[in-house]
Amino acid sequence: MSSAYAQNSEIATQTPSQGKPKAVDAIDVQKYAGTWYEVARLPMYFQRNCVSDVQAKYSLNADKTIRVKNQCMNKEGELDISEGVAYPQNDGNSQLKVSFLPKGLRWVPFSKGDYWVLRVDEDYQVALVGGPSHRYLWLLSRTPDVDEAVIEDYLNTAKAQGYDLSKLVRTKHIAEK
């Protein structure tokens, strides 16, 4: 176990926070880019039709924004894909605003959602993402299968940051098996 993992484990056992969740100070966007598999989530309206195989792919744009491509298998067994862009909101790139509207409508202020990296391991293999509202949360991994102890540790971080996990959904990955 790395020392960063152990330090984050200690943070995870602290008393739940009553204020905003805290994003990590900074992420290496180059290391964060690539494919992430959803391990668990707090249900979001836009994912209402996703039943399995949820993935997010991130890549860097020339203007320092991040291209976002989300996909999942829907109830009909078809692939749903949505593409958007993430805009950094802090110097460390750990707080982002994401919009999935068409390019011409992305200027609308209320059309962007918060995407805060709350925790990521030093090898960029597991990440916890949420926002200041505590209404949504994603546990992501570079592989569809994650050790249960790692999942519990990251979920403890979410609890310590004030997230109610009573409606947490664990994601199935059928196509990857």
Keywords:
Lipocalin; Calycin; 8-stranded antiparallel β-barrel; 177 residues; Outer membrane lipoprotein Blc; 9 strands; globular; 15% helix; 3 helices; Lipocalin_CS; lipid binding
Write a brief caption for the model:
The chain has 177 residues and is of the alpha+beta class. The protein contains 3 helices and 9 strands. Belongs to the calycin superfamily. Lipocalin family.
CATH class: Mainly Beta
Our Rg estimate from Cα atoms comes to: 16 Å
Q: Runs with pLDDT <50, length 5+?
A: 1-17
Average per-residue pLDDT, rounded, comes to: 85
* Strands, total number: 9
How many helix segments?
A: 3
Beta-strand residue percentage: 35-45%
The CATH superfamily appears as Calycin beta-barrel core domain
Largest sheet: 8 strands, antiparallel, barrel
In words, what does this structure look like?
The protein has 177 residues and is an alpha+beta fold. The protein has a single domain, classed as Calycin beta-barrel core domain (Lipocalin), CATH 2.40.128. The protein has helices at residues 3-12, 29-32, 148-160, and strands at residues 34-41, 50-60, 66-74, 79-88, 95-99, 113-120, 126-130, 137-141, 169-170. It has an eight-stranded antiparallel beta barrel with strand order 1-2-3-4-5-6-7-8. It starts with a helix and ends in a 7-residue tail after the last strand.
